[in-house]
Amino acid sequence: MGLIFIDQKLNDKAIEYFRKADKIRSDIGDQYGLSATYLNLSLAYSNLKYPDSVELYIRRAISLKKEIQDLYGLAKAYNNLALHHRASDSPVDSILIYYRLALNQHRSIGNEYGVASTISNMSPIVGEFLNVKMAIDTINLGIEMAEKNGYNELLIQMYWNKALLYSFIDEADSIVKNTILSRNMRDSVEAERNLELITEYETKFQTEKKEKEILRLDAENAESALAISRQRNWMIGIILGFLVFAGFGAFVYAQRKRKNEARLAEQELGFRKNLLDATVIAEEKERQRIAKDLHDGLVQSLAALKIGIQVALDGASLDEKASSAIKEHKRQIDLAAAEARSISHQMMPRALQESGLQLAFEDMLAKTLNASHIQYSFEPFGLGDERLPESIEIGLYRICQELVNNILKHSEATEVSVQLIKTKTHVVLHVEDNGKGFKLDNKKEQSGIGLNNIFSRASSVNGEVNYENGKPKGTIANIRVPLR
Length: 484
Hints:
- The chain is α+β, with helices and mostly antiparallel strands and 484 residues long.
- Helix content is 77%, strand content 8%.
- Among the domains are: 2-185, Serine Threonine Protein Phosphatase 5, Tetratricopeptide repeat; 354-482, Histidine kinase-like ATPase, C-terminal domain (Heat Shock Protein 90).
- A 5-stranded mixed β-sheet has the order 1-2-3-5-4, with helices on one face.
């Protein structure tokens, strides 16, 4: 909750919730969670520009990380402290001390990404204030490590920082080379455009050197230098004009190509979305039709058959054995009617049609989980009496129904928590269990537990589905659906 308020730039509110977490985790002795809360508090105070509080909570987190031997978390905490001192214009030595501490921790646990990232962050400071050559050698090691492991996003910043280091010693070729590598890693189309710009700057650089030479010659022979200057400027103007025209043409072509590709992709996405919507709508209509046929047809026929049997039983003189057999048949008819009525309500729950999503969830969870060994809780937030759009209510109901069925069939869970949260712009469904979980990268297992159906349902209402592994075990499912 605190991190959500930070995303909304409500840092005072975030601090209020972090303090609640602080108290709970202190009461139960959760030192790992407590250290995470301290880092979150430091982030909120950093946004509010309270440097003393930032320092206090990062150091508290470091103390706990050391105590519980969380070396990865300790490395992150040292990195945060270095960033804080850097933002506070602290002495270079203190900044580098914390970067080196973070670097040592990452190396001790074999975290090559952390090593490369820390090298990238500290190299510009080393180059600017201490020794440029040493900083370049260090960042080269980090780049080699990042290239070996495919840390492409990190390489973007590392190449950029390397170019910055070369700018301290005015090595134009190396600046150009590493700037190009950074841009190429970010986007191939942008890299081509940046390459043209860099080439233009290099041309201007060489032109300026030649113009300085012309000015020197001008002191010796003004008339000759003036003629040479005019001729050279005329040639340079043509070349630059050609380069500008060619670059502009390439830029326009790339822009049009990108717009066309985006338009085609949007059309294809729209077609798939419409097809999926039509499929979901058709499925819901068929469910409604079958539910209505079951309720108004089969259930009513079974009720009439029961009444007919009862009337025949009341008006007939039967021995005890025959009467007992007919009563048993009557009981079987009651069971069949109840089963048909239950199937009808599952296919189109009356509680959802009449009372809305909150009561429909309560009814569905009670009917589904009360008969099992699973303990469950349901917490609605912000729903009130206002009804949501019908498509969203049906979609979220079906998704929750599918998730609960998957938990019953596959998870071996003993506890389930369901939360339904409505904000100004979204509805969020949070389902968490303590079962055995599943591997998200196992396509066969995904298909087996019905994830494709959940993704389809969410997509039909423009929703997003996110699965996480629970701690210490289980599965967490978050479905986020926009209200508009």
